[in-house]
Amino acid sequence: MYGPKYGLLPSGWKTMAAIGRYGPVSAKQVCAYTTVEPDKVSRAVDRLEELGFVRRTQDTSDRRRVVLTLSPAGRNAYGDIEHATRIVEMKLLDCLSSEERRTLDRILAKLENRMAQCLNRAKSARTPSLLSWRHGAH
Q1: Whose CA is closest to 118, among 108, 128, 109, 105?
Q2: Is the peptide bond before 38 cis (omega within 30 degrees of 0)?
Q3: 50 and 101 in contact (C-beta within 8 Å)?
Q4: Where along the chain do its domains lie?
Q5: Which CATH architecture best describes the domain 3-95?
Q6: How far apart are CA 4 and CA 16, in angstroms?
C-alpha cells in the first residue's frame, strides 16, 4: 500500500507512523513506539527526510536532542496511507460478526500486553534476539 506509491520500506512506514501519531518525537522515542531497531530508524529517517516527508530540528530546551516532525507532504502521505489502511481493515473485519470482533479485540489486547512484557524483558536483558520474530509486524 505504501511502498510503490511513496517509496517506503516497512521500517520507513513504521517510523513515519510513529512520528505522525506521537510527534514531535526523537529517534529514540520512535524506537520505543515501534519494533524497529535504532539503526533502521536512523536510515528510515534519512530516507523520509530525503523524500521530503520528515523534518529534523534541534530541540530548543535540549540542544543535544533532534526533534522529528512530519512535513506537510509527510502529513499528506501519512493521511493517505492511514486512510487506505483503515479501508483494508474494515473490509477484513466486515466478514466477522460483532461477537467475533469483540473476541478478536480481546485476543489482540492480550497479545499486545504480552509483547509489551517481552519487549520490556528484552530491553532490560539487552537481548535483541527475542525481538527477531517480530521484525515484520506492527
Answers
A1: 128
A2: no
A3: no
A4: 3-95
A5: Orthogonal Bundle (1.10)
A6: 16
Q: List the grid coordinates of 99.
A: 461477537
- As given in the structure block, the three cell numbers for residue 74 are 509527510
* 3 dihedral zone (left: phi>0; alpha: psi -120 to 50; beta): alpha
In 3-state terms, what secondary structure has residue 69? strand
The pLDDT value recorded for residue 78 is 93
* Cα–Cα distance measured from residue 82 to residue 61, given in angstroms and rounded to the nearest whole number: 32
Cα–Cα dist 23/107, whole Å:
29
- Percent pLDDT > 90 in the chain is 50
The band of 87, judged by pLDDT with boundaries at 50, 70 and 90, is very high
Amino acid in the structure at residue 81: I
How would DSSP label each residue in the chain? --HHHH---HHHHHHHHHHHHH-SB-HHHHHHHSS--HHHHHHHHHHHHHTTSEEEEE-SS-TTPEEEEE-HHHHHHHHHHHHHHHHHHHHHHTTS-HHHHHHHHHHHHHHHHHHHHHHHHHHHHT-GGGGGGGTT--
